[in-house]
Amino acid sequence: MDRRRFIQAGSAVGSGMLLPGLDVVAAQAAPRQTLPPVTDPLYLNPIADPQAIPRFVNALPRPSRIDVTAGGTRTLRASPVVQDVLGGGLGLTTPVWGFGQNGSRRGSGTSVSYPGPTFVAVKDRPVHVHWVNELPFRHLLPVDTTIHWAFQHTDYTIARNGVPSVVHLHGGHTDPQSDGHPDAWYTVTGTHGPRFAGTRFSYGNTQEAATLWYHDHALGITRLNVYAGLAGFYFLRDRHELSLIEDHKLPSGPYEIELVIQDRMFYPDGRLAYPDIPADSPDWPGGPSVQPEFFGQVILVNGKAWPYLDVEPRQYRLRLLNGSNSRFYRLSADGSWPFPVTQIATEDGFLYRPLPLDAPLVISPGERVELVADFRGLRGSQFTVTNDAPTPFPDGTLVAPPADQVLQLRVSRPLDQKVPEPRLPGTLRKAPFTVDKPPARTRQLLLFEGTDSFGRPRPLLGTVEKGGLAWSDPITEDPALNTAEIWEVFNTTPDTHPIHLHLVRFQVLDRAPFTADQDPQTGALTNIQVGEAQPPGPGEQGPKDTVQMPPGQVTRIKALFDKRGLYVWHCHILEHEDNEMMRPYQVT
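== Spore coat protein A ==
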């Protein structure tokens, strides 16, 4: 089966092919019922009809926060929890996995929740986290053991050893032993991977203010662990950002809201559903198969299906994260912005100047964007944030209801006159962000799509010269310590990939179309002809760690590699990352 047929099968729900047929739960508030079942070719059993899930009847949950602004040490546990994800008075609950300070033990601190609590830290005040794995001996979701994953070539099983997990602080300027290397996984029984360096991680917080996030990063199972709920925000502040807040130039307090957008599917009884069909191959040994991508039809924000947010007629700082496995979002309010929306930051810091948005906002998996939304003079108004990004992006299937709606904004709260209205500054940083150090080397790298031994699509990273390379192939990217490099990444696949580099904040230099001769077996390129380069969009001109690399284009980025050790770079479509679209790199 080719890739497009895989994707078309996964687009059945919500496209006319259906066949009818953050509240941690203490007690059920309504009699338990089930949602109408529908069949879908990606699932062995009927799943819940997404259209039957109520929209805009649940208030937006706000993640709890862990104050580490003075630095210090915290313990956070990854543990099962049951939450009312669907809401709407259905009386259904959903087993998920989350993070919290209590875990399965009682005590003080935040309870386990999905998403996990938001850390609030300050630059140059180190934070140490003991990440405790309390995950059970059975996964919530179907595990494909044919791909390269944590337990491959071992006698370990989840039933005997537990679920492997390790946490990565995405966007963090972190030493390698605390970076969450995919082979540094460990389980509740103490079983661990070859790069394991302990369960206590240190974050020096040596970078500027940024919207970071933490999530599971275990080899070959990240897509499932994150889908189960293992993710949360990590806000890093610095003196500059704090001065903007103190001088009433940025919304703060209750007017600063984190929003993680994710897509999911469910079974009629409220449990999470994830594709579990076998591969279409005569040699398939049995069991579920990894999919090229996953596109759910139920949109969650902060772990709640289609919530609403009541706001005052004032400005709000919205810190957006696309936490979905594969889905891109092209966000607007029915195609435009009927209220002023201004972008102020990329993943790892402020833009030079505030950027008023005059078009929909495209955000790919792993990217973060900070916005200031202005609801002044709009009391009584109501807006629906919508999504029209095709799946896969940019030329796939058009988005179909109900996945075309995300969040409802209601300007319904009375204005608190005691809170000063912020006034955005003309500039947000001293100068436009650049990586100033001259490049010591320019590398030509590759995005390639091949097939595996079962005929399944297998996306790969690689080099222009060698072609596509697997995770275990020898390292080809080895920047010297404290040098800058330019990476030119040629995308020969039909889709846009969000490419993430650990450790660094990079500058997006430009993109250009290209033509080349490609070896159909290896993917190696020759006779490359590059067209006219275009600068990055104005919303990409801040410090970034994840960038959209469109098909048929070479995307150039520049980074400074200032910590020695072993790191990784990968596509942040989690189904790609788990199926070999990830490579190690070594700072020497």
